[in-house]
Amino acid sequence: MPKKLVLGNWKMHGGIQANGDRLKRLVAGFTTREAHCDVGVCVPHLYLAQAQEMLKATSVRWGVQDISTHEEGAYTGEVSARMASEFGVAYALAGHSERRTYHGETDEMVAAKVARCLDVGIVPVLCVGETLDERERGETRQVVERQLTAILKMRPTDDARRFVVAYEPVWAIGTGRSASAKQAQDVHAFLRQVLDSWSSSLSSVAILYGGSVKASNADELFAMPDIDGGLIGGASLDANEFLGIIEATQPHTVSQS
Ligand code: PGA
User: Fold this and answer.
1) With contact defined as beta carbons under 8 Å apart, do 25 and 55 qualify?
2) Would you say 198 and 157 are in contact if contact means Cβ atoms under 8 Å apart?
3) How far is it, in rounded angstroms, from Cα 229 to Cα 246?
């Protein structure tokens, strides 16, 4: 079974002092747990050098939360994938719902971001997920399938093998209301089916769940057969809580009702 993957998304939180403390605690706590999962933290761009310095000799990787659709040029305020890669970045989120909502990112823009990451060897984490309205209208599968296949259509299968998908229902992000393990598993199984039917070589693409994951619900979520790990927002800011989530990736014996 492939290792699970737990990624933190710090969003626009942090400061040099606070990051230093958080990373120190994370590294100290992670050493004994490293065998059973891969771990990374997606930090604001400004803190990449700090993350690189503090994590380069550890098994914790680091990433960014967004990158430009462009390779280079007159794009004030943007950060390119190549620039991020100079700081040893392993992962980049693409199409997080906050980017789609507040910055009008379309599937085409997200596809371009995925492409830029693949060009420089960064693993893109493609975020998909439905809003509450869409769920209530019974459109969840349609929405996530559209978001996923929009990207697949634009990438050759060989490239697509190198991404990670994160299912993040918009109504569960930062709300304290996680999808239940069953709700998440249903969508993950569907996404797996979409990947499989696209190409059998995509069957090993990791599918993470994100949206109000905490140490207290991670066990149950990670026990699901198609949940390969988590994308963790708020709870990744607290090293102990994040370590608790990492701990939950251990093969365990949670009873599934
Ligand atoms: P949350 O955020 O864990 O705070 O809900 C998840 C995310 O936005 O990636």
Assistant:
1) no
2) yes
3) 9
**Ligand 1 site residues, Cβ closer than 6 angstroms:** 9, 168, 173-174, 210-213, 231-235
Atom of ligand 1 nearest to the CA of 178: 5
Residue given tokens 């019974």 in the structure block: 138
Q: Helices 107-120 and 140-154, interaxial angle, to 10°?
A: 50
Measured by CA distance, the residue closest to atom 6 of ligand 1 is 233
**Interval between CA 174 and ligand 1 midpoint (Å):** 5
**Atom 9, ligand 1: residue with shortest CA distance:** 233
Helices H, strands E: what count in the chain?
A: 11, 8
Is-contact 246 39, C-beta < 8 A?
Answer: yes
**CA 95 to centroid of ligand 1, rounded, Å:** 13
| Residue of the CA atom closest to atom 3 of ligand 1 | 233
Segments making up each domain of the chain, as ranges: 4-78+97-247
Task: Round to whole Å and give the CA distance between 207 and 194.
Answer: 12
Ligand 1 mean position to 224 CA, how many Å? 19
The residues annotated with a catalytic role in the active site are 96, 168
Tell me the longest C-alpha to C-alpha distance in the chain.
55
CATH pick for 4-78+97-247 out of 3.40.930.10, 3.30.1440.10, 3.30.530.20, 3.20.20.70: 3.20.20.70
Mean pLDDT, the chain cut into blocks of 10 residues (257 residues total): 91 98 95 77 98 96 98 98 98 98 96 94 97 96 96 81 94 93 98 94 94 97 97 98 94 52
* pLDDT score at 215: 96
